[in-house]
Amino acid sequence: MMEGMTTAPGQVPLGYAGTRHPLDPDPARATKARAVFALGLIAALTGLFVGGVVPATIALQLSRQARREAYASGGFLTGAAWLRRGERLAWIGLVLCAVAVVTAVVIGVVRMADAPFGHDYAPNMD
């Protein structure tokens, strides 16, 4: 009798407490979201030392899996903010690694350009 009652015409009905099914699981944070964030942080911190490539790659792969699982769970797995932050940190780690590699290549090419080509013989040698 009171299911469709409203407080005033045009307002939302009062009771929505019974919309959730009793067998639905409680929303829980995905454990992979925490792992993605931790690996992304490690990748960002070690990116300049070229060691950030491995954790960044693992973080990006785990984030794909976590997004797939969250979509399949129908909203009962949370942690999308942690996933986004972890992905951003992983990409930052990869960019820092690329910057370090490009810088090392440029420094190596400049040093090779300054080095004399061939043997450096004494001035009195033919």
TrEMBL record:
Keyword Transmembrane helix in annotation: yes
Per its record, how is this protein called by name? Answer: DUF4190 domain-containing protein
Task: Give TM segment ranges.
Answer: 35-60, 89-110
Keywords per UniProt: Membrane, Transmembrane, Transmembrane helix
